[in-house]
Structure formats: structure tokens, C-alpha cells
Amino acid sequence: MGRAHFYGSLGKQHPAHPIVGMVLPDSGRVGAPDFGGYWLIDSDGAEYGFGDARYSSFPSRGVAEPFVAVADDYTVSADGTVLTLGGGAGMFGSMAGRHLNAPIVGIVNTWSYNGYWLVASDGGIFSFGGAPFLGSLAGRHLKQPIVAMTNSRVRGYWELAADGGVFSFGKATYFGSGASRPAPHGDRVPRPRSKHDAAMGLSTDARQGDMRVDYLGSA
What does the pLDDT read at residue 168? Predict the structure, then answer.
């Protein structure tokens, strides 16, 4: 969309595992300079490269749960296990082995790459490294579960619900939401069929103020 180049997709292919995220070459990896491609990551860690992005593989290494989300060089599982895809990314902790009231559905790193947030389907936020905790929806009644989050460049973040509801924290500006509002093609934001299908992505462009929602690899 916009000025973003299309380098290909899985099209009519049927990967063995659902796609849970996209990684761009600016995440510190070697192999695709100048944003000349991208990787799609599935829930087992396999990478599908397009453009200049080279194919590689990052098997799940026996984690208890499949990967549910990707943020640059990080992946997270529903049980809160965080692993790196490479690129020299630092580890700042995880929720692995700790009690969760709801499964983890997303991970977002800070703009300075000195930490990251995990978000659970009940709106709970878990901060690691230099990622500040600015509030969460944990303990509040939600009409639909949270499926993703993204961060703002001005010390804040947004949470996204399955019905298109958007919740802002910190200095992140609230611009509205898609809750109860039909999408341009006439459909509502799709509801995840299971916690492993809640692989939605929310991204922003601070210069344009644009927000995009993807579901299971669709764009």
C-alpha cells in the first residue's frame, strides 16, 4: 500500500503453519539492504523470503507453544516465551514459566531496540528492558479480546481488539477505531478462531499517521 513495494507473497501456497508476522530488512539483519524485500514468519519459525531477503529457518526448538507474533528479530509464544531470530538482538526477559491470566498475542520492541512489550489477549502488558509500562487493560471488561499492539514514537502505545477497538496509553494519540464500523470492503475486522489464529499485526507510520491491520498474513 502507498509507496511500499510488493516483492511477492505466498499466494495460493499453503504453508504448514499459519503466518504470524513480517520482518523488514531494517531490523539489523544482513542480506536485504535498502528495504529490498521482507520475510514472512510462520508459527514454527520458518522464514519465507521475498525480494532480496534470503530464506532461512528458525525451528521452534521445542517451545511449549507455537509462535504467535514477531517484532523485528523477536518472536513470542502464547506462553510468553521470547526468542530471537538473530541480527544481534538483545534478550531482556520473558514470561516463560510465569502465571498468565490470558495467552500472549503480541510483542513490540522499542524504537531504540533496548527493550520490548508483550501483550496478552486480556489487555495485560508486560514490559522488559527499557520499555516503559504506561498502563494496560488487564482487569477491565472487553467486548472482544486484544489481538495486537504497536508503539508510538512519543512514549506511548496502542492496543487493538478483535472488533477493531483501539485503546491508547501514555502519549499515544487516539484517532478513533473500527469497532462496530464496517471495513471498506463491507466486512468487520475478523475474529480470531483460536488463540493461535490471533496473529493480527498493527503498524503505524508516525510521519503519515496511518494505521494498518493485517490478519493471518493478509495485507
Answer: 93
Homologous superfamily of 19-215: YVTN repeat-like/Quinoprotein amine dehydrogenase (2.130.10.10)
Question: Which among 180, 158, 52, 54 is positioned nearest to 106, based on CA atoms?
Answer: 158
Mean pLDDT, residues 168-191 taken together: 67
Q: Which of 37-41, 86-90, 92-96 has the highest mean pLDDT?
A: 92-96
Where residue 135 falls among pLDDT bands split at 50, 70, 90?
Answer: very high
* Total-model pTM: 0.74
d(CA 5, CA 195): 31
Q: Which residue has the higher pLDDT, 133 or 177?
A: 133
Residue 15 Cα distances to 6, 10, 45, 189, angstroms: 20, 8, 12, 23
Helix (H) or strand (E) run with residue 89 in it: none
What residues pair up with 19 in beta bridges, in sequence order? 42
Helix (H) or strand (E) holding 49: strand 47-51
CA dihedral 77, 60, 72, 110 (to 10 degrees): 40
Q: Backbone phi, then psi, for 35, in 5-degree steps?
A: 55, 35
- The CA-atom distances, in angstroms, between 4 and each of 14, 35, 41, 98, 219 are 25, 9, 19, 39, 12
The CB density around residue 90, as the number of other CB atoms within 10 Å, is 13
